[in-house]
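agent> Task received from the user: take the single chain below, predict its 3D structure, and emit structure tokens. No templates, no multimer pairing.
agent> Plan: (1) validate residues, (2) run structure prediction, (3) serialize to tokens, (4) report one or two observations.
agent> Step 1 OK, no nonstandard residues flagged.
tool_call: predict_structure(input=
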Amino acid sequence: MDTSSVLWTLISIFYIGLSYFAALCLIFGLLSKLYGYLRTPMPWPEVVTPAPETEGGAIMRVVGDVLIFPNLFKADKYLWAGAWVFHIALAAILFRHLRYFTYPVPSLVLSMETVALFFGYLFGVTILYLFWRRLALPRSLYISNIPDYFALVLLGGIAASGILVSYWLHVNIVDVKAYILGLMTLRPTPPPAHPLFLVHLTLVLILMIYFPFSKLLHAGGIFFSPARNQPYQIQNPGHRYINPWDQSVGD
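)
tool_result: status=success, residues=251
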């Protein structure tokens, strides 16, 4: 076995190990955060008014927050437009990537081939716009720090390398799918020997490791926000509220 074959074998083992490590970090990191959210006491109604007065209304408000960002729309319409388009493009890209994880590929996923490049460019443009806002607006520049820029640079690198390997410097899709399905079935195979694909894969794995411990986790945290997921409760002025979490009460 020559030196290049040995080197590629070591690189393959590294990426296989890193892929499993990233998947475990993502899964257990999210479960850990979920456990923390569920363990956090929320005994006192902290709902932001005006608010719905029923559980169903509170659920619909959270759904509205997730889908259309109404509070951001009221605060900054230009930021709302960029953020909303960014999330729509990201959702479309993630949905299209199901073709690498499924066999046979659902027809709805295959139907996105005609618009996949459009969403890829749209995703990249909105990342540039959000990055520009952080640098151009004094208010955004003041509150921004390294993690904010790191997340945008990481997503921008994923978008750029993904477009290049899909439409310009083509990688063999069959090899990509074989690599991913091999990981999922615990029968790993070497990744495609395509330098730019390895760059794209590395950035994606870094994002998977980083996601559960970053500000990007607002994607799940919003469901546990007591200011959004509780209905408004009209308190009786003559009723003294007793915190059920206060163990000293009744001792």
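agent> Step 4: summary for the user.
Residues 20-33+96-223 form a domain with the Fumarate Reductase Cytochrome B subunit fold (CATH 1.20.950.20).
agent> Done.
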